[in-house]
Amino acid sequence: MADWPRPMRPTAGGDPVEVFQHTPLTTDQLTVWTGGEVAFVNGGPVVVVGGTRKAVDRLVGLGDFAVRDGDRFWAESADGFSQRYIPA
Fold first, then answer.
1. pTM for the full model?
2. What integer pLDDT is reported at residue 3 of this predicted model?
């Protein structure tokens, strides 16, 4: 099993955050880590993380990343992720 979550730092600056990539093998672990719920969109699993952001900002699809800063979670698209975050 992969070593998730991982510490990352936004390339734009800021404090380190923890990230967790959603794969078919990590759906259950990601759901527990975020305290979220599994839903299905277009036939595929997504993890809906808690929070007050718009629902679309809290859907972590396959390949995407859940990001945690303290007790706040949000979703980050896999597209361009390595340009927005670097290992901490």
1. 0.93
2. 87
